[in-house]
Amino acid sequence: MQVKKLAITLFKLIVCLLLTASFSLAHAQSTGKLTGKITDQKTGEALIGASILVEGSTRGAATNVNGEYTINDVPAGTHSVLVRYVGYQNKQISEILIKAGQPTTLNIVLTEAATQQLAAVTVRATARQESANSLYAQQKNSARVTDGISAEAIRRSPDRNTADVLKRVSGVTVQDNKFVVVRGLSDRYNNATLDGAPLPSTEPNRKAFSFDIVPSNMVDNLIINKTATPDLPGDFAGGSVQVTTKDIPDRNYTSVSVGAGYNTASTFKDFKSGQRNTSDYFGFDNGDKKLPSSFPSSEALVNNSLSTSQNTAAIRSLQQDWNVYNKKALPSQNYQLTVGRVKDFEKTGNRFGATVSLSYRNTQNYYQDLFREFYGNKYTDQVYKFSTNVGALANFAYTWGKNKITLKNTYNRIYDDQYLSRAGVNENITSQVRFSAFDLIQKAVFKSTLEGTHSFGEKGSKLTWSASYSNTLNDQPDQRKANYVRDINATGNAPFFAQNTTLGKENARMFTYMTENGYSGNLNYSTPLKMFNNSATFKAGLNSSYRDRGFTVRFIGLLPNNVDDLEQIRQRPLNTLYGQDLIDRGDVYRLSEIPGSYLDESYNGHAMTNAGYAMLDNKLSDKLRVVWGVRVEHFDLDLQNLRKSALSRAQLSNVDVLPSANFTYSLTPKANLRLAYYRTLARPEFRELAPFGYYDYEQVSFITGNPNLKRTLIDNFDLRYEFFPSAGQIISVSGFYKSFQNAIEAYNFDQGSNRQIEYRNSPKVTVYGAEFELRHSLGFISNTDFLKNTTLYTNVSLIKSKATNPDLGVNLNYSERPLVGQAPYVVNAGLMHTFLENKVTFNALYNVVGRRLNVVGGPIFPAIWEAPRNVIDLQLGIKVLKSRGELKLNANDILNQRSLFYFDRDGNKKYDQAADQTLSRFKYGSNYSFVFSYNF
Question: Is the pLDDT of residue 44 over 90?
Answer without folding.
Answer: no
